[in-house]
Specification:
By secondary structure, this protein is an alpha+beta fold. The strands form three sheets. The protein has a nine-stranded antiparallel beta sheet, sandwiched between helices. Strands 2-1-6-5-4-3 form a six-stranded mixed beta sheet, sandwiched between helices. A two-stranded antiparallel sheet has the order 10-11. A hairpin with a 7-residue loop joins strand 4 and strand 5. Helix 2 packs antiparallel against helix 3 and helix 6 packs across helix 8. The longest helix is centred in the last third of the chain and has 21 residues. The radius of gyration is 26 Å and the shape is elongated.
Length: 492
């Protein structure tokens, strides 16, 4: 054994022995190394994009394989081009990281980070329907001139994967979750878990495109989960004394379709946020395609996206800023929600965008709004929306009075529930309650719950018409007894 190999093994053994040295799954280093792994394998290996290997492999690479011996960068690339990737159009070999096996350890020199060790397991499929093989790996990544490069890699303990050696509960391993998603025809699932008033887990499962695993920062269209964000824009302005919940909106905006109806003077922010405007969900649902009152404002509940758009126009008239600008100033920038926006612009990373699919797996056209829609089509990630919900849960930027209004029953909605301001309220008994909102469009099914008393929450994003099929299991697993109560309310 050469000195280099001996040193590499001793380095890996030392780090593996100190499990306390591994970094947190929400740390920047963890996310960085996983993103490099994803580029190397999900893009490079799984699609035969050789350029990814040329970029990410160090010129000093040493690759140790327990079946194929030792390779340097030149030999590794030659073998890849003339072996597995000789015919990319017919190649079906695929590598899948066993995410729950991942452990990442930082490497320091005189207190300065210079590298990281990534230990774990991965599955290899030789054909699309074949049973996979499994192997362990240890990869050493180093910073070379500020860029992360794979310098040393061990791939060992290759064997057949015994998928039937034990019955594994769905939520115990990422592999089982991925299988469960396939069964439910959900291409991509984003999941965020809030505990003790903080975002504790951010996970994304499935594929962003065929054969390419979805990254942790996948961008979703979240449909009506746009409405809570618009709500908090308005409530923060109320908390700042710049807006009034009960001031008539005609002072700032009157829609031409209802200008001659005196009931327009009854519209207030409170009635809009609690869905008591009397409007249809959207004006195009009316026979004449125009906005009009279906009942007197403030007399009963009727869910309406038009109401949120009405509020947007009043806010924009008053403050001479777009809703995007107001949200940037009040929410997105303070919370560093860099991937969240109402409009499609040059900053949207298309490679991370989750396309919506119907129940048969056919893609829908991606919505690209040029102007903000206060009720629909917000683009965001699990991490960004999780930051937003944590701020709501902790009443950041809201006065005690405004938070109380938001979480108080304003109007009865359905199934014994009520709407507060911007959120639906579930009475869970024992003085406990949940705040909720969902989103449903073509190729979009999303849902969030917040439990203010226990400081818990769950965020579920899917990009399929069938996405709601996974809600019940996720709620019961992550919210326990309260999750079961929520399911009972919805199914009674």
């Amino acid at each position: 054994m050469t000195k280099k190999i001996l040193f590499s093994f001793l380095l890996l053994i030392t780090i593996c022995a100190n499990s306390n040295a591994q970094v947190d799954k929400n740390s920047a280093l963890y996310k960085t190394i996983l993103s490099k792994d994803s580029l190397l394998f999900n893009v490079g290996f799984n699609t035969c994009d050789i350029k990814q290997f040329e970029i990410l492999l160090s010129d000093n690479l040493k690759f140790y394989h327990d079946k194929d011996g030792i390779s340097d960068k030149t030999k590794f690339l030659y073998d890849l081009k003339n072996g597995l990737c000789k015919s990319p159009e017919t190649r079906q070999v695929k590598r899948i990281l066993v995410k729950e096996s991942t452990k990442i350890f930082p490497l320091y020199r005189n207190g300065v980070l210079y590298g990281a060790v990534h230990n774990g397991e991965h599955l290899f499929y030789e054909e699309r329907e074949s049973q996979p093989g499994i192997a362990k790996f240890s990869n050493v990544w180093q910073l070379e001139n500020g860029e992360w490069k794979l310098t040393t890699s061990f791939s060992f303990d290759h064997q057949a994967y015994d998928n039937n050696k034990k019955e594994t509960p769905i939520f115990d391993t990422d592999i089982e979750i991925e299988k469960w998603l396939i069964q439910n025809k959900v291409p991509t699932l984003g999941l965020g878990i809030i505990e003790n008033g903080a975002l504790k887990q951010v996970k994304v499962y499935g594929e962003i495109t065929k054969g390419v695993a979805a990254p942790y920062n996948t961008i979703f269209n979240v449909a009506s989960l746009t409405k809570p964000v618009t709500t908090i824009v308005a409530l923060k302005l109320v908390s700042l004394g710049k807006w009034n919940l009960d001031e008539p909106l005609y002072k700032y905006w009157t829609d031409p379709d209802i200008a001659n109806d005196p009931r327009n003077k009854k519209l207030t922010t409170r009635l809009i946020l609690s869905h008591q405007t009397g409007f249809a969900n959207w004006r195009w649902m009316n026979d004449d395609k125009k906005l009009h009152f279906q009942f007197d404002p403030g007399t009963k509940y009727q869910y309406s996206g038009e109401g949120m758009e009405y509020l947007r126009k009043a806010l924009e008239k008053k403050f001479h800023k777009s809703l995007q600008q107001l949200a940037d100033e009040l929410i997105f920038q303070p919370l560093k929600m860099t991937d969240t926006r109402y409009v499609w612009d040059k900053n949207v990373d298309v490679s991370r965008m989750a396309i919506g699919y119907d129940k048969d797996g056919k893609p829908y056209e991606t919505i690209k709004n040029n102007t903000p829609n206060a009720a629909d089509d917000l683009l965001t990630t699990i991490e960004d929306y999780g930051k937003f919900l944590v701020s709501v849960l902790n009443s950041e930027g809201l006065t005690d009075e405004v938070f109380k209004e938001m979480t108080s029953n304003q109007v009865a909605s359905s199934k014994g529930k009520h709407f507060g301001l911007g959120f639906e309220i579930y009475d869970l008994g024992n003085d406990e309650y949940a705040l909720s909102h969902g989103g449903s469009d073509n190729g979009v099914q999303t849902l969030v719950f917040l439990l203010p008393k226990t400081k818990q929450g769950i965020i579920i994003f899917t990009n399929s018409d069938t996405g709601a099929n996974v809600y019940e299991s996720l709620l019961k697993h992550y919210l326990g007894t309260n999750g079961q109560k929520i399911v009972d309310i919805e199914t009674k």
